[in-house]
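QA checklist item 7 of 12: single-chain prediction sanity check.
[x] sequence parsed
[x] length recorded as 192
[x] structure emitted
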Amino acid sequence: MKTRIRIGGLLLLAALTLAGCGDDPGSDLPVNTRLGGDFTLTDHNGEPFRLSSLEDRVVILFFGYTHCPDICPAVLARVAQAYRNLDEQGDAGPVQPVFITFDPERDTPAHLREYLPWFKADIIGLTGSVAEIEAVAEQYGVVFLKTDGQDKAYDFTHSDYIYLLDRQGRVRKLYPADFDLDEVVNDVQSLL
């Protein structure tokens, strides 16, 4: 059942990724008009955060949860490395990594504030109510499903794409979890 949900979600995401792409003069990266949009969640400092507050910054956006046993921390480490590579080239100033949790019960602002600095990439952590997170996930075509484990433990089955947003907050490209660091760095630089 979980596998069918994941495959179905990934097929939907692939269709949305290919559909609704427009051109933007001056860039080779198409604008995806089917995914994305502004939203408001709560940041790791407990303050309201709007995506539009990052206008004029290129955003590397990832959805996941901090108690993930494998994929999420590995992807966060890769996003952080891409950011550090940009920093070494003097291009990190107008770039902002953003992490949105699926797990507001455990990923409180205080927990995100403690967890994300380990990645050394100035990542903004976002949480909110379940309904708020579901609405943002839907905007971005993200699929996630809470799965019960033993002793009240739980995990999430989820899509694991990384989103590149331009300075206007538009989705320009999606990357798989094992994305090529140089590709992301080059794509970010093309939007600066």
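[x] summary fact logged: The radius of gyration is 16 Å.
[ ] second reviewer sign-off
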